[in-house]
Structures are given as C-alpha cells and as structure tokens.
Amino acid sequence: MEGTGKIWMNGRLVPFGSARVHVLTHALHYASAVFEGLRCYRTPRGPAVFRLGEHVRRLARSAKMYSMEIPYTEAQISAAILKTVRASGLDECYIRPLAYRGHGWMGLTPTKNPVDLAIACWRWTAGESRAGRGAAGIRCKVSSWARIDARAQPMKAKAASNYANAALARVEALEDGYDEAIMLGPDGAVAEGGAENIFVVRDGEISTPPLSSGILEGITRDSVVQIVEADGGRVAESAIMREDLYVADEVFMTGTAAEVKAVASVDRARVGSGRAGPVTRALRRAYMDAATGRDERFSEWLTPV
Fold it and tell me: CATH says 129-291 is which class?
C-alpha cells in the first residue's frame, strides 16, 4: 500500500504515517468495529465517489446493529470522506471509513468505550482483486468453512468480526491453489464469496441469493441489479445450491474491490466456457460505465469530490 495524503481521525486530518491507536484499543481485542469500502473514480467531470450516501447509510446501520453510536451524522461522515479524498490528492482511490470502540476500559463489555471514527484512502492497484477482471476468470473453491449463521451475529452488518470467518475461507482457498472461496450458509445453500456477492447465469436467467439468506446487502450487488432492470432485464433472488454452480452457464462475483469479476471454475469444475461469458462481460462494462460517469442514467450515484 502506498501511504498518500492524510487520514481523518475524529475530526482531524493527520499525516498518513502518524495515524495510530492505543494497543489496548477495544476493537483490537474484541473486533468491536464496523467499516465500509468505497471507490472514488475518475470521471469526465472530475473525481467522484460512487454511491457515497448508500455506503455511509450502511455504515450507520451496521453501527446500530452493534449498539455503537457514531458521534457524527451521516452528512458529517460524507463530508469527512470527501475532505479526506481531497487531502490525498488522488483522482482514483479506495476509501475505508472505520468506526471502532477505542481505548478506555478493558474487558468484554464494549459500551464503556468511546466510538472513534477514522477515514483513510489509498491508490487502488487491484492487488488480490485483479484476478477475474479479465477474460480468464477466477478459480473458486467451496469452502469447508460455513458462513456464520445470522442467529449468531448480525451478518447484514459490515463488521470486522464477520470478516474473520471470511478470512478463514479465503486463506484456505489460496493455500489449496484457488483464487477465492465460496461460502455456504447454515442451510447448505450458496451464500457469498470471501468478500463478494455471487450471481449465477443459466439459460439466459440471472439469479442471486436473497438478502434473507443472511448475506451482506452489497451495494455493488444492488447496482448490478438496478443496471439489469434499467436495461429491461430481471434478476431473480432465489436459493442457489452448490451443484447449481457446476452447471451454470456463467458465474460472477460483485463487490466494491472486485467490481464485477468472472468465475472460471468451481471445485475445478469448469463454469461454462471457463472464461468470462457474454452476460458477465456486458455487466462489467455497464457497471464501469456507471461508476465512471459514462452512463448518464446513473449520474445520481456519483458525488463529485
């Protein structure tokens, strides 16, 4: 990661290398943190943050699910995000707002500790999300780790604690020679990838697991659904079983970092042609046109920096 510009911490912009927290910060010990991932894209009208309002709203909802009162309004958080991007000097970047229980009292009970807010951004160079964005697609493995049951903790929250589960699945997949994991829910149905929502194309129909299955309410997922509907199509929300992945014509994943990426194989079973299919390619182009301001129909999704 290239450390550029400044990081916003509780109302102050501090140098990138000086943004520090106490070793007894509650979130370091008990994962009492929620966060977001946003992208700023270069557009014909200058840099703009994609779906800023929706991301900030989800951050606030995630915090509420964990009884965290962020001491800033959604409008103040949005303004702080834009201020941080401007301070970075970057016209394209990844943005990470993080609300976390800070230093104060040490013990399991989180509510005795203050809620701090930090916002960082850095140049995004694809990194681990590069695979699958070209024609080749990624190799996925159905993980031996199941997606956490929503009865155990709120899986609709974008919480740090949820990602320990995803990290186990991701590491297992990488160590076994794959690019990404696919996680099943407690009912055995497909839930999502390590950090992505998942879609299946079969016989011209697009489907994705329903929000009621305990998946993250992905903003990129919602963007793709809206793009399909705007073009006269439909995405069905329905249960997807493991075997549905093997016989699909196409499988693709969506996420802020991943954008829209193709799945070439699942458990070494080739998906379709083994390369990005026509639906995936078309939706990837359409999504990037929306995110970079080339499709005026979705201009309201962009907030100028």
Answer: alpha beta
Domain boundaries, the chain: 6-125, 129-291
Burial of residue 83 (number of CB atoms within 10 Å: 0-12, 13-18, 19+) = middle
DSSP letter (8 states) at residue 71: S
- DSSP code of residue 155: T
Distance CA 166, CA 152 (A): 15
- CB-based burial, 246-276: b 16+ in 10 Å, e otherwise: eebbbbbbbbbbbbbbbbbbbeeeebbeebb
CATH architecture of 6-125: 2-Layer Sandwich (3.30)
d(C-alpha 135, C-alpha 133), whole Å: 7
The torsion region of residue 147 among left (phi > 0), alpha (psi -120 to 50) and beta comes to beta
Per the listing, tokens 């929000």 go with: 211
Catalytic residue among 6, 83, 156, 158: 158
Q: Which residues pair with 121 in a beta bridge?
A: 95
Q: Which tokens belong to 41?
A: 């894209």
CB distance 262 to 250 below 8 Å: yes
Percent of the chain predicted with pLDDT > 90: 93
Of 65, 182, 196, 80, the closest CA to residue 129 belongs to: 196
101 backbone dihedrals φ, ψ, rounded to 5°:
-75, 120
Does 64 participate in catalysis according to the annotation?
no
Q: Which two tokens stand for residue 194?
A: 């390590």
Task: Dump pLDDT digits (tens) for 75-99.
Answer: 999 999 999 999 999 999 999 999 9
